[in-house]
Amino acid sequence: MGGFVRDETLVHEAKIVWLVDISKMPSWVRESEVDFCSRKGVSKERLSELQQEGQILLGYAELKDGAPPTFTEGNHEYFNRRIFTIGEKDPELYKVDYPVEAVEPLSVEPKLKGLPPSKKSQIAVRVPPSLFSKLKRYVQQTGISQTDVIVSALAKHLDSVEGVPMIQRILELEKRVDALEIQS
To answer: Whole-model pTM above 0.85?
Structure first.
């Protein structure tokens, strides 16, 4: 039923539908493609098949209206679409690593394959010497890594609070508490 996702499966995706709160998902989910009888939704039969295989459906891709069928068999059209699952036994089987089809749920977008959990995106930037000195001083004073400081700054700038590292959130809360104590 599963397998790796082919590029042609992504071409006509319109949206990803999550059946659970994405913020409460595990750190990875299985990404695979399956054939459906429709461009949207999931039939009770398909859900039953997944359950019989020990898979829990967490999300799926829906296709644009008018997307062509992947293949036709008799009078029936079939559409390859991505699904995102986790196996009932995955938590005990994969305590340290993860299966090859695993992706980070937060990296999943229409028309783009999810990123493997082990791969974090990297960027290289050039910063003015004065800003770099301030960064180094801040890192020494707080004990927070340069990466966490930069990720936190990007997350704040891009209004992505979930990207702010926990240590940075704690420091911000401590600053607020100190300021409140000074006021009272």
So the answer is: no
